[in-house]
Amino acid sequence: MGMVKGRMDERILVCVYYGPNGERLIRRGHKMASIMDCPLYILTVDPLPFDEFDAEKSEYIERWKTLAEELDVDEFFIRDNEKRSSAKVIKEVAHQHNITQIIIGQTAQSRWEEITKGSFMNVLLREMTFVDFHVVSVDRSIRDENDGMFEKGIRAFLIEENDGFRIKFTLSKDAKYEGIFFKEIGTDFNNGIFKFMHNHKMCQVHITDDIVADDSAIRIDK
User: Fold this and answer.
1) Where are the alpha helices (DSSP H) in the chain?
2) What is the number of alpha carbons within 13 Å of residue 165 lying toward its C-beta?
3) What SS3 class is residue 183?
4) Confidence band for 217, pLDDT divided at 50, 70 and 90
5) CB proximity list for 6: less than 8 A, separation 6 or greater
6) In this structure, are residues 110 and 121 in contact, taking their beta carbons and an 8 Å threshold?
7) How far is 75 from 58, CA to CA, in rounded Å?
8) What is the DSSP letter of 107?
């Protein structure tokens, strides 16, 4: 890591979070940095301390670290145990390292404006007028990395039921979360992935026969 770059007036920061889009974002950042011959940084933010990360999170971190080494990324920042909003942390890192370009995933907050009213992206644009943003589609990433395993996403809702969560496709007063359901291709049942916003973060849970298979990602911040 850290080879001398030809251009220091441009610096790229890739912001990643757990899910299928992370590696795609890093590779997009590397491609841009190679063309511009400028430094490349990676940032991930988590409210939990590193030693409390579950196996899935730890696996993503290790995979990103390996990829960062492979692509000669200048630095990989892990801001764990972070109580501030992701936007505040991104802004701080961008200031500290003179970032001029930021790459983020097109999360539900920006892609499905009727759900989130674009709050996260609006905050970033309002607070960081000194950088250019590049937004990479999460929907496209899911199709690429899962090789057509899912149908086109449709609007759906989660309701609490019998100490768990069930997916529904009509809005009711019992709806706890609104998001997008990606049904697995070739199944007659509602099996797939439900993506939604929770505490200003994009979350993802697996649905098996209408039921959330593991709701820890929902309950951890409740």
Assistant:
1) 22-36, 55-70, 86-96, 108-111, 113-116, 119-127, 138-145, 216-219
2) 21
3) strand
4) low
5) 37, 38
6) yes
7) 18
8) -
Give the sheet arrangement for strand 40-45, strand by strand: 75-79, 40-45, 12-15, 101-106, 132-137
Q: Which two tokens stand for residue 79?
A: 């801001």
Which residue reads 């496209």 in tokens?
140
The Cα 107–Cα 154 span in angstroms is 15
User: Cα(63)–Cα(31) distance, rounded to whole angstroms?
Assistant: 18
Tokens of 219: 């309950």
Chain-centroid distance, C-alpha 176: 21
The full length of the chain comes to 222
Q: Is 134 exposed, middle or buried (0-12, 13-18, 19+ CB in 10 A)?
A: middle
- pLDDT tens per residue across span 19-36: 767 888 999 999 999 999
Distance, in Å, from the CA atom of 41 to the CA atom of 29, rounded to the nearest integer, reads 9
Structure token digits, residue 163: 């100490």
pTM of the model: 0.58
Q: Alpha-carbon distance 81 to 167, whole Å? A: 31
Q: What percent of the chain has pLDDT over 70?
A: 80
Q: Please answer whether residues 203 and 193 qualify as being in contact, where contact means their C-beta atoms are separated by less than 8 angstroms.
A: no
Q: What is the pLDDT of residues 3-22, one digit of tens each?
A: 556 667 899 999 998 776 78
132-137/101-106 β-pairing: parallel
